[in-house]
Structure formats: structure tokens, C-alpha cells
Design a protein that fits this description.
The protein is of the alpha+beta class and 539 residues long. Helix content is 36%, strand content 18%. It is built from 15 helices and 18 strands. Strands 2-1-3 form a three-stranded antiparallel sheet. Strands 4-10-9 form a three-stranded antiparallel sheet, with helices on one face. It has a three-stranded antiparallel sheet with strand order 7-15-16. Helix 10 runs antiparallel to helix 14.
Length: 539
Amino acid sequence: MSGYDLIDSSWLLPRPRGEAARELCSLRHTLLHAHEYDSIEAEVSTHIPALLRQLLLPIVMDALGRPADRAAWARWFANGRFTEEQQQAISDYLDEHRSRFDLFGEETPFAQVAGLHTAKRETKGAALLVATAASGNNVPLFATRTEGDPLPLTPPQAARWLLHAHCWDTAGIKSGAADDPLAKAGKTTGNVTGPLGYLGVIVPMGRTLFETLMLNIPIGHQPADDLPQWRRPPATAQWRPRAATGLLDLWTWQSRRIRLVPEQTDEGLRVCRVVVCAGDRLEAIPEWEPHTAWAFSKAPKSTPGMVRRPRRHMPGKAAWRGMTALLAAERQNGDGGVETSVLLSQLADVQAEGFLAFDYPLQVQTIGIVYGTQSAVVEDVLFDSIPLPVAGLRTETETYTTLVEVVEQAEDLARAVNDLSADLRRARGADPIPWDKGQRPGEFVLHALDPLVRRLLIGVRGTADDPDLLEQGRTAWEKLAHQRTWDVAEKLLATATGSEFAGRVVKKDSREYVYRLAAAEQNFRQRVRDALPRWAQTA
């Protein structure tokens, strides 16, 4: 079977700037011409961090090294592209390691184990790699395809899903490799998800692919023994729990032992079958993991101090609602506190020293997967992208204060509408909508406020932290937020009947509470005035 060279074959889809047509490009071309592209496109949003971490970032960082300090980073970034010397270094690096970038190589297939097989030499359908495809326990009862139906992948598709599996694969039982001493009865148990499955991934995005690469490279020392997987001895069926030696090791982590099984079909070379077995298990998410924010909680009684864990994204929750975590350069609020990602904290320092313009159009993508049934199936893929004012990353700025205040106001308005709904339901003798069941009306408020917040984030970026301009923006926001909130509240009030006017008396803990329409509306109006003080002054 012929190989497939990932260096000079066309398999990546960078999005060109301007009106140029989109087409598949080689790895070499994509990196050397990164300044000519907006970003990398992919079938699913979760491919973006997989391609960055498993491929693009480690190549750049291993070939060129890491910027030693913020001034060095700023010089690289200001060029807007890789210099001729850097391009030559990247190209030479790819040529030096070409043998490890053969997707179907007989001895060292890229990110795979040559000759990997189970004791009975079974293979499974390629859908096993595709998180969005029905496979195994994920096959719906009335799906149009079954697990037995083939899902042929082109070499470019197979390469992308291969990297995706190393980052996001589900947990649960995996096939046992024939040469794996830890396999029992042909299987391995206790497998965890891929490393990114633990994270609420945060990826800073620039105006070009080059800038995105630079925004995602941490500044500072790189351990001498830190190597990407293609500079390490070829993986075998044997695996072990271990710690990551550094970023290159972490980014190219081989969380599974995989072998793609290519075959010639009428449509050309396709991957229809795969072997997926247990891979290395990361002992712990290192504290220097750059693509996540962090949450703090109290440690168990036997252990003093706080526990620092990656912060996960919440389904159905817009990225701006987690603004506090994105902007918290240092741990805030003790138990329940948050801290932003290494990369966003680094950008705050770079901007503070004048190496990055205050109005730089930074975008932040938040990406995650929701697993179900003991993390053995994929229930949902989470994605959002928001503009994030760079000045807001510094807690001492007015921009930071403005952004935190706006998010708190939006949440307060949603709670006010939820309380209005609860009071009206009690007035008619019903129970409030449970917080974890059904759709509460506060969600409609947040949905209505979403475009306003995103517009504010873009507008704030150009204020240069000017207090007067920020105050004007806050006033305009509160006026529109009041209008959108009342649009939702009026629909609740319009459904009131005679029972809400008369109200109900509810006894609780030897006390009596009276719930009626007039009191509910009065309380709501006061809640809105408290949440929007600037609007209240002009009302």
C-alpha cells in the first residue's frame, strides 16, 4: 500500500484572506504562508484545537523555539509573518522529519503504531474515529446507518480525525492490543477521555493564521527533554500512565494506540477500517496547560489549601457569560474562584507593556465536548466565539470593570425575570419552574441580550480605556437591556388571569407569604432599577 505524505500532500483547508477560492493545501504551504490565511477550517469545531496542538503549534515551536521574553515575542508578532530565515527553518525541519509524517508508512505511520492488531486481528469501522458519527453505543435506534455500514474516509479526512481522536476520544472499554500486557480478555478498561475532554478549551484567535499561531505560543523556557511525538521512539502497543514532560509532549499526546487500515476502492484510496486501543494516560492536567481557564474549590478535609481544576464550559451558555473567568488574571474569590488561561494572562502582560495595541481585534473561541454515560459517548459539541477587548484582560482598567459589570447585569436581569415568573406561578397556585427542568423565561432574556453584549464587546475595544466613552457605552447598553428585558416580562404579565390578581397565601416555616400580580410586578420593577442604575436615573 502506497504511503501518504502529510508534509506536501494537500489535506488542510486554510481559509484565504479576501476573495480567493478555498482549496486544500499541504502542511508546508499552510505554515510558510500562514500570513495569507484567516484561519484553519474543519468539519467540526473540535478539530481546530486538535490541528493546532497535535500539528501546527509543535512544529513551529520545535523548529523555531519559544520566544524568550515578551519583547522577543513582540518582535516575532510585529513581523506579521514568518521571516525568510524562519520559513527556511520550518521547511528544513519538515524535511528532516519527513519519514515520521507518512500517514500510511509501514514502519512509522504518523501518530499511529505500525502493525497494531488485536489477538483476533479484528478491525472496526472508521466511524469509530468520527465523534459526530453514530458508532457503538452512540447508534440511535432509528438511525439511517448502522455500525456495520462503512464510513469510508479520504486520507485528508482520516488524518484530521486521527488527530481528533488523540485529543477528544471517548472513555470506556477499548480493544486490547495483542502485545499489550495490560489487556485482559482482549480488552482494556478504565480508559479516560482524550486530554482535551477534561478541559473547557479556550483558543485566542488573531487576524491571520500566523497571528493565531503566535497568540497560542507561551513565552519562556522550554525543557530540553520536551519533544513532540515524531521525535520520540515510535510508539508500540504498550502504554503507561505518566506525566507530560512539557508542552510539546502534552500537545502531541498519544492518548490512543491507533492504526488506520487503508484500501483501494472505486473512489480511490480510503480508510474504511481502524484499530483503536488504549494509549498513554495523562496522570494529571499540568498547571501550565495553556488552553483552559481554572476553577478553585476547597480541598478535602485531609488536605489543606485549594484544589485547582480546569474549568469546563456549560452547555447552552454563551462564552461571554463566563467573562469573569476569561478576565481573571489571578485567582479570584477563594472557594469558587477562577483564573484565566496562561495565554490570555500572557496577552494582558504583553498589552500592559505596550507590545500589543489596545484595539487589537482579538477573538476567543471556546470549545468543548459534553460526554454522557460514563464519558463513553458524545452527547454534544460546544462552540462559541466572542470578541474580547485586550485592555479588559487587565484588572486595573476601566474596560475590565465595564465588562464584568455588564455580564453581572445580564445575569441579574435574567434572575429578575425568573423571579417574576416564579411569583406569578405561586399567585395562581402552581410551583415555580425547577431550575434544572424546562426552560425558564430568564433564558429568553439572555438570548435577547446576547447580540447587545457582543456589540458592546466590539465597541469597547475602540475606547482606549477612556472613562467617558465607556460611560456612554454603559448608558446605551442599559437602555437597550431594559427594553429587551421588558419585552420578555410583558409576555409573562400578559398571561395573568384573575387568580394572579387575587393572589395566594402560602405558609412556610410558620410564616405566611402573599403572592399576587401587583406585588410581583412591583418587585420586578425594583429589581430592574437596581440592576440598571444608569437607566433608572433617566427613567
